[in-house]
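Worked example (supplementary).
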Amino acid sequence: MRRMAPVPQRRTELLRGVLDLCLLAVMAEGPAYGYEMTQRLRDRGLGIVGEGSIYPLLGRLERDGLVETYRTVSNGGPPRKYYQPSSAGRVALGAGVLEWRAVRDAVDAVLAPVKVEVAS
Amino acid sequence: MSEFVQQCRQEWSRLGVPDPIAEEITIELAADLRDAEAAGMWTEEYLGASAADPRAFAASWAAERDVIPAPAARGRDRKPLVLIAFTAAAALTLVVAAVLLITGEPRIGVATTTKRPSFSPTLAGPGPSVTRHVAGANASAPVEWILLAGAAIALGFAAWLWRTWNRSGSPIQRAAV
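After joint prediction of all chains, the assembly is encoded as:
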């Protein structure tokens, strides 16, 4: 019989399906480059996500036309590639948030009666 | 440039990612890793499991962004076509060999020798010839059995190749979150 996934692994698996939404959400707050996005995610408690996974996701969002990018040269620093949601990306973000909320509410309804016992 | 970034750059070149794009994503990755390092994070801390496999990470990024040229992608699909042809040929050979064995037609001779008995001075004229089949009474059987065995082995090999192909994912699939 397959054993349940350890807590960190479960969190990673749960996040995998919504990480693109989270990225769109944090870049909707203001254009950001990759590292900045990970910082914004960390500030909201999503530090557990392997940041390596955001780059392929950013590539996919760019391929699908859900983000717009531009490059700027910072003072003395390397050129930075900034991401922001395109109009299609904002539509996708809105739809995704609605979908997430529906799933979250349904899962909550299933799990709400469960009494959690914390091992001492 | 860190070793991790260099390995990613090499992988993008190997995959045929156009140079301007490979350069762009190399700079992007290197800059973010520098930021992470400045914040006191190792590459492993910043990238998580991806740090352990730069080739898979690079391939995943390039594939998601759809910047791997078509020939490389076609090359990955060519293997099943070759396998299909090989499997079909082996199966066809197996069926043909089985039919030949069952029907016994057409007979394929392996080799026959005709030997006359040594000249006997007491007999006039040519003596009766004796035909000796090297492979026995049914000369076709060994060839058909060899075909059958060869085809069966080839089919077994094809099955192993199919299992191997189905199990081994591309580097893209190996990329971990």
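Two points are worth noting when inspecting this output. Chain B is about 65% helix and 5% strand. Residues 70-103 of chain B form the longest helix (34 residues).
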